[in-house]
Amino acid sequence: MSYGSSPEVVPADVLRALAGRMAAGLARRGVAEGDRVVVALPNGVELLAAVWACLGTGRVPVPLDPRLTPHERGPILEDVSPALVLDSLARLDELLGEEALELDPAPRCRPMHFTSGTTGRPKGVWSGFWDEDDARSAVLEERELWGFAATDVNLVVSPLYHSAPLRFALGTVLAGGAVCVLSAFTPEGFCEAVERVRPTTMFCVPAHLQRLLEHLRTAPAPDLSCFRLVAHAGAPCPEPVRRGTHAVFGTDVVWEFYGSTEGQFTACPAPEWSAHPGSVGRARPGRVMLVDDEDELWCVVPPWGRFEYWGDPERTAQAWRTTEHGAAFTVGDLGRIDEDGFVYLDARRTDLIISGGVNVYPAEVEAALVEVPGVTEIAVFGRPDERWGQRVCAAWVGEASEEQLRSAALERLAPPKRPKQYERVEALPRTATGKVRRTEL
């Protein structure tokens, strides 16, 4: 079932047929509608097909980073009680037979992605099952915003276990378009894929764009005229990188958007950013952006945008409030909205580190390292990094050695979460109420 390491275009009908065979295999294995299926596979069309097989037949896919350690993956498996764990291509092959199930025209729910927040324990973001009208509306909303069409070839350069690249790839194939999935991003691999498959759309994070622009300073640029859409999000984009991207791809091609695992807020084409520098755009169609008295941003969403945190009604209640415009949620970001409706982010969640477009939550890293013998207390924080936006750092009090901490991180944390820099300190800086001052670190 392997499609090889070279970039290859996979049409929607081929992917649908593969997903249908996987769905039949799930049924044979006794995976019932409503059951959770953990999908922890390397980046490839197989991962996309497995997710589609679940969404199109009423199973709930739970995409996970295949690099998660047992320490990280164990609590998630305990939380969702999956009927099946697909964590290798060999296990996926076992599902395949000649029989195929017909997939629904639209997914019955969103994939259940996990996010940590301030608690240190990841929680699933669960949309619930949609009725036919909401399922159709959820697909059409993405299609109308991004223009997904049967003529599209979506180049996947980010891990598909993340919500945004998965949403762009799935939206493309649901519109009849094709996908080309890179196993990992490199500027050289990107350029090869562009020349070979002539993609029309791409989602990426600013770190990808920064690496590509650096590469193109000394290497010939491929013909990028095939792209009609390059969307970036996931981290603040430095202005030189943004302007360089506009110059390379064209301002009529580049968009950015603001969103989270929980939901999508805004979208901003490059000309609008040029007219409103620093903005992340206006509310997506069908949504309303609000700001409260404490400068916290809230988003009113349509019915298919509702979610809960799996098995955590208290945390769910904290994320939602009723407004005159309808139900709105927040992820704790601070900002402002100008008179024309353009949203400006003043601060992402103070507990959040964004490294290479990957969200790293200090509480989760701290919980994994505070148990190291000799650690009295530890604080994890981000520092600016020219290549990745931020790098994960840790300061600790106690007799434990840096080698002990690095060894524990290697055992318990996936690569993006492992601190790149450690500092032993006599005491952590704290507020009068005892809260760690991460900004001082």
Assign an overall shape. Answer: globular
The CATH superfamily of the largest domain is identified as: ANL, N-terminal domain
CATH architecture of the largest domain: 3-Layer(aba) Sandwich
| CATH uppermost class of the largest domain | Alpha Beta
Largest sheet: 7 strands, mixed
How many domains make up the coordinates? 2
Strand order of the largest sheet: 7-6-8-9-10-11-12
SS class: alpha/beta
Our Rg estimate from Cα atoms comes to: 22 Å
Could you characterize the architecture of this molecule?
- 46% of the residues are buried.
- A hairpin with a 5-residue loop joins strand 18 (334-337) and strand 19.
- The chain starts with 11 loop residues before the first helix and ends in a 17-residue tail after the last strand.
- It has a 7-stranded mixed β-sheet, with helices on both faces. Strands 13-14-17-16 form a 4-stranded antiparallel β-sheet.
- It is globular.
- With 441 residues, the protein is of the alpha/beta class.
- The protein has helices at 12-28, 45-55, 70-80, 89-95, 132-146, 163-174, 187-197, 206-216, 239-249, 270-275, 313-319, 362-369, 402-412; strands spanning 36-39, 60-63, 84-86, 113-115, 123-126, 153-156, 178-181, 201-204, 229-232, 254-259, 264-269, 282-283, 288-291, 297-300, 308-309, 320-323, 326-329, 334-337, 343-347, 353-355, 358-360, 375-385, 389-398, 421-424.
- It has 2 domains: 12-346, Rossmann fold, CATH 3.40.50; 353-424, 2-Layer Sandwich (GMP Synthetase, Chain A, domain 3), CATH 3.30.300.
- The chain has 13 helices and 24 strands.
- The model has no long low-confidence stretch (mean pLDDT 92).
